[in-house]
Amino acid sequence: MANAFWCMVEDDRKGTPKKVMAEVIGEATRLAGGDVEAVWLTDTATDDGIRQLGEWGAKKVWLIEGAELAPYRAEVWVPIVAELVAAQSPKAILGPVTSRQREFMARLAARLGVGLAGDCMGLAMDGDKLVGTRPVYAGKLLAKVAWAKTPWLATLRPNVFKPADAQPGQTAAVERPSVQIPAAQLKLVERREEASTGLPELTEAEIVISGGRGMKGPENYVILEELGGIIGAAVGASRAAVDAGWRPHRFQIGQTGRTISPKLYLGFGVSGAIQHLAGMRTSKVIVAVNKDPEAPIFKIADYGIVADLFEVVPQLTQEFKRLLEK
Amino acid sequence: MKIAVLVKQVPDTATQMKVAGTAKAIETAGITWIVSPYDEYAVEEALRIREKRGQVEVVVMSLGPDRVKEALRSCLAMGADRAVHVNDPALAEADTLMAARALAAVIKQEAPDLVLTGRQAIDDDMGAVPAQVAEILGWPCAYWIMEEAIADDGKTVRIGRQVEGGLEIFDVPMPAVLSAQKGLNEPRYPTLKGIMGAKKKEIKDVKASDLGLAAEAPQLPVVALEALPPRPPGRIIPGDVATAVKELVRSLREEAKAI
Ligand SMILES: Cc1cc2nc3c(=O)[nH]c(=O)nc-3n(C[C@H](O)[C@H](O)[C@H](O)COP(=O)(O)OP(=O)(O)OC[C@H]3O[C@@H](n4cnc5c(N)ncnc54)[C@H](O)[C@@H]3O)c2cc1C
Ligand SMILES: Nc1ncnc2c1ncn2[C@@H]1O[C@H](COP(=O)(O)O)[C@@H](O)[C@H]1O
Fold first, then answer.
1. Fold topology of A207-324
2. What is the rounded distance in angstroms from the CA atom of residue A74 to the CA atom of residue A72?
3. How far apart are CA B28 and CA B10, in angstroms?
4. Which residues of B touch A136 (CB under 8 A)?
5. How many Cβ atoms sit within 10 Å of the Cβ of residue A111?
6. Residues of chain A where predicted confidence (pLDDT) is lower than 70
């Protein structure tokens, strides 16, 4: 439908939309006042996945299914969606910040000749125009941006926007447009899986534990992973810990690592250098444990404990265990 | 073979950013400018390709005001062969799409076999320019590469791109645009000889008109820049570790409702 707000579906590669889509659809519904459609390119979509999108509030699912659509390749996806845009004239296209949406949305914006606001933390209608709020300089400042024309393209930072409440029984109409799937230029050789930690993905996690140089060595991260297992947290690290080779770079939090906005951030043995704070200062609640009372991280922490982390972490794990078993 | 590297000049990561009086721009007084850290991985990778293959020209390109020469100079000191500086007041307010159009126009003129960029510029943190350059040129693109090897025949490049949960290895036909993630390599420091040699290397100035660019306004204008809202004051929980831990868990549960 013309003027609809579109939500690009990010899935788990097994046919189920990621939880973050509840946030994207929820925000689109607030902005559009209901006229929300999902666009899903995938090699497999499950019925359950489609039902989920409907319950979150998508009125329609534009489903483009084909083996050639996985793994994601921009040169395959962009022409398909651009063609759909030309036929349907959506007002906005929103997606979550993920590795593929970052590239896809930028390339789509160039094809359509419109603006893209990446990594938004706020979206609001100002009259009949959309205004986006996005962190710049790694979150040291906020920029308000506007779009010169529609469709308005934006990616949304996970954990920031209020998720839609699922309405059981509410369904989306499924539309399978016939599209030409362009030939891929990137040829897949192999996919190397990371050893799974069993913990959530850093940028999507609601709770993030961060270990800095105070962890003293890679072997000590098990105590953070134990704590993470109890409270369902991802475990990240400071650059000092990453550069020392204790953790792979994908776990680095900060200006030259991942930018996160969890509901709860717990830092252990992290001093709080400006580049680290840049990547986590938009967390809702910040806890810091450091034996140096002068550590700069205490300036932005909501709760601090000045003590040896090796004493604090095991007791904290026990205490959370007791609380959550109740 | 020719490799183009896109580098942006940005404020040093230790800068406390402030908003200028206009509320649309940053206060630039006292800022130390650096090459955006991810772009250094791109420069380093180009130099390594040259060292491995020989017969490779590395051209660094940047869009920005006069001060950008300094960033280009430091890439030349690292070992790049020459530089192109897109320097035009008409592009002062460029958004990523305008920047991509200008850079794509330079790339078209130079016709490199490969374009390397940073994962994102650490000022606008957009990560959009590489994909937009690729789209404008009609080239393939791969984001967040962690490894790269050009085939002997110079026709394809095998890359590993970082995605959630793993690394996807692809063969990409050249020319292509690749954006560098941290971990691709460890950038070198310029040697004294490199710094001296850089003074003699060419930095070509180009204007929008040299690139045949039509005047345009940004598609995503910045309406205002703001400081972050201050965080409410926090508190240090006193007492021995056992007491403090109990109090912390209670506060997270009852006050902050974070768990
Ligand atoms: C271009 C550039 C980009 C950067 N990007 C990033 C980035 O993205 N992310 C990032 O994190 N950093 C980044 N940095 C590095 C940053 O400047 C700091 O060096 C780094 O964050 C410090 O990490 P740390 O806090 O773990 O280590 P330190 O600063 O060494 O702090 C360790 C802390 O642990 C405490 N401690 C030690 N032992 C214990 C114990 N047993 N119990 C409790 N506390 C203990 C100490 O009191 C100290 O405060 C960047 C720097 C530059 C120049
Ligand atoms: N003004 C510019 N000049 C040269 N390269 C740029 C410029 N802006 C962006 N780039 C390149 O594109 C990458 C991503 O930038 P951005 O999309 O702005 O985050 C950077 O790491 C650079 O390699």
1. Rossmann fold (3.40.50)
2. 7
3. 11
4. 123-125, 225
5. 19
6. 1
What ligand is nearest to the CA atom of residue B87? 2
CATH topology of domain A5-175: Rossmann fold (3.40.50)
Q: What is the pLDDT of residue B22?
A: 84
CATH number at residue B28: 3.40.50.620
A124 SS3 class: strand
Q: Which tokens sit at A244?
A: 């020392």
Whether the per-residue pLDDT at B199 is higher than 80: the answer is yes
Contact list, B223 vs chain A (CB under 8 Å): 131, 144-146
Query: Cα–Cα distances in Å, from A34 out to A2, A54, A62?
Result: 13, 12, 16
Q: Are residues B166 and B257 in the same domain?
A: no
Cα(A257)–Cα(A139) distance, integer angstroms:
13
Who contacts A172 (Cβ-Cβ below 8 Å, separation ≥6)?
A38, A50, A53, A54, A58, A59, A60, A61
User: Going by C-beta distance under 8 Å and a sequence separation of 6 or more, which residues neighbour residue B143?
Assistant: A99, A102, A103, B119, B127, B130, B131, B161, B179
- ipTM of the predicted assembly exceeds 0.85: yes
- Give pLDDT tens digits for A75-111: 999 999 999 999 999 999 999 999 999 999 999 999 9
Alpha-carbon distance of A252 to A27, in angstroms, equals: 29
Ligand 2 atom nearest residue B121's Cα = 19
